[in-house]
Amino acid sequence: MDKVERKTLVEQVYSQMEKKIHDNEWQIGSKIPNETELMKQFGISRNTLREAVRALVHVGLLTTKQGEGTFVTHSDELNAILQRRLSKSTLADILDVRHALDKEAAVLACARYTDEDMLEMEKWMHACRAAVADGELDSFVDADISLHISVVKAAHNSLLLTLYTNIVEQMKISIEKTVSLADDYTIGHQQLIRAIKVRDQEAAMQEIDHYIHTFKKRI
């Protein structure tokens, strides 16, 4: 592997190691090479390597286990930071942020969705209805989350998608505990997708308000 030039060595090693994680060369859950191998690979001192590793541990990409080694925990720095911050937040706070993101996503989706996006949204809308008809709570929760993510994808904003998927992942257990297989959810989904389809931003936002308000009453 390329040896680094002496400039800001810690930053350069950090970037190269981060790239290995991002490119999945070092996969999540895997143990990274030992210090001797990495020192040789990058042509650096032990102190420089340890500073870079500490920085990666600090942002949550790596974790060090005493007597075992250093392991990859996340593949993206923003995801790692968000997960750490969200884990310390209350469900009510997370839900407030989700509400804002859902509404912004719906507005953007109204303006930006493609035919493929609409097919994806309608697919998950039908999956929600099928899960309700079958009384399958787990399937409904998965379809419900996938539906909202499909709306966010239709907004065509990669940062919004990253923020949203992290928040929903934190909320999944709470969703499973509080969701009810009631018609108000699937009706809301139908109306939400219908509003997006005709590019009615006001109606789409109203449907998001209804959905979140219903959810808040159950937590």
TrEMBL record:
Organism: Listeria grayi FSL F6-1183
Keywords carried by this UniProt record: DNA-binding, Pyruvate, Transcription, Transcription regulation
PANTHER family, sorted: REGULATORY PROTEIN GNTR HTH (PTHR43537:SF47), TRANSCRIPTIONAL REGULATOR, GNTR FAMILY (PTHR43537)
Listed SMART domains: FCD, HTH_GNTR
PROSITE patterns from the UniProt entry: HTH_GNTR
Origin: domain of life: Bacteria
Protein name: Pyruvate dehydrogenase complex repressor
GO terms assigned for molecular function: DNA binding; DNA-binding transcription factor activity
Pfam families: FCD, GntR
Keyword set includes DNA-binding: yes
Domain HTH gntR-type, residue spans: 7-75
